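Batch queue: ligand-bound targets. Current item pairs a single chain with flavin-adenine dinucleotide. No template structures supplied; prediction is de novo from sequence plus SMILES. Inputs echoed for audit trail.
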Amino acid sequence: MTDPSDVAPRARSAVVVGAGIGGLAAAVGLARRGWDVTVLERATSLEPVGAGIALAPNAVRALDALGVAGEVRSMAALQGAIGIRRADGRWLVRADATRVGEAFGEQTVVVHRARLVDLLVRALPDGALRTGVEATVTDPGSASDAATVRLSSVSAEASRGGPGGVRTRVAADVVRTDRDAEDEPSRDDRFAADASGRGDQVAHEVLRADLVVAADGIDSRTRRALFPEHPGPVSTEVTAWRFVVPAVDGLVPAETWGRGSVVGLTPLADGRVYGYATASLPPGTRFDDPAAELRRRFGSWHAPIPAVLDGLDASAVLQHDLRWLATPLPRFHVGRVAFLGDAAHAMTPNLGQGGCQALEDAVTLAALVGSGVPDVPDGSGGPARTDGDGLRRALAAYTAQRLPRTRRVQRMSSQVGAPTTWTSPVAVAVRDTLMAVVGRVAGPLLVRRTASVVDWHPPAEAASHR
Ligand SMILES: Cc1cc2nc3c(=O)[nH]c(=O)nc-3n(C[C@H](O)[C@H](O)[C@H](O)COP(=O)(O)OP(=O)(O)OC[C@H]3O[C@@H](n4cnc5c(N)ncnc54)[C@H](O)[C@@H]3O)c2cc1C
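Prediction returned. Tokens below.
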């Protein structure tokens, strides 16, 4: 009988840890280049997340390279008059969102996150996504050896995907499957045990892969394992609430600035309204009824804010304390593992660029490994194997291209005004518009810096794969 650990990886197998925007985009990019991709997500389903996301021109171009920008552009709802108001309703700035498109050749698009996630999932090969599996990178691999990832699935049923009928399969080779309950249970494992009331056994598998993409978010377990010295995320002492509510008559997209707080309302393409609010609060501050807290804080602000908050249900409100990776990683790769998105460079949302940079990462990584890893026959007559030296060079190039750029954007984001300003799609669009207008007149340094963020284009090789 063959020792399972001797089973060689199939050609160009990639395991992506995390099905957020960054992980899904990387998986789509790699699959388009012929990689056999498995995406592992610990959540048992990709539940619709009740919030919007602003996709600046650089992100829309990245989505273009992944073949999904058409639908995103059609969701553009941030058009015409937008502005910044005071709490009493007086306009501080009024601008035209379409000017951003004129300045940068592409519109900033505000989409519901669930729509973006759905678009990316639909662009994946059938069965590439496995939900309900906690992934741990146990060996980052080297030029000569594959990386290994251990999976703990909460139950066979859960790992087959949640609502939405996500079909699953395994692209990378399974070298060991066993059932035991020895390891310390993860949060989801404990949840499964609690939910069943029986303490279900946990299934473990070990996958080997030519490439692992660590897209496991700001609290990345992979980052903690491979960069144990890194101090991790730090708090900004600012909290953000987000929600999506039904359409509001006569809404003019605006961000309203009060003393130390911001409220923003912007329409989504389907007519609903994406709202957000920020306030300076110690990390961990939570309220029994967040909707009531928002009414208490902002219920006396100008119309239509009170009406929007009146109809708000507490369960529809998301709250996140804002954190970022103030200390940069020394590099974005270890062995055969590439880090991207918040796992690599979580930033404050002041520039609205965290997700946009994750999309840039994904497209750049796919372009570099896609073009930089020659297939070399392994002599067996079987499919070509991935050349480890080529992959090493490609990942070094990935760090060289992405680390300095994301570091610059992280710094800019934390430096842009007070943390409670510029956090929103509307404010970002207003700023971009104003900068574009002012820039044509004076060309100040700030304009050039802003342009350097949103003026990104996918590597030529990526664009040619459309
Ligand atoms: C208030 C706020 C507003 C924002 N607004 C914008 C905006 O307008 N525009 C913008 O571009 N960005 C914005 N951002 C930033 C953006 O949300 C993030 O940068 C982006 O979502 C990061 O995506 P990601 O895929 O890297 O990580 P995540 O979205 O965090 O995804 C990580 C995934 O990995 C999974 N996971 C983690 N560990 C494991 C494991 N061990 N095994 C399996 N799965 C695992 C998690 O469950 C999760 O699904 C905002 C952020 C905040 C907080």
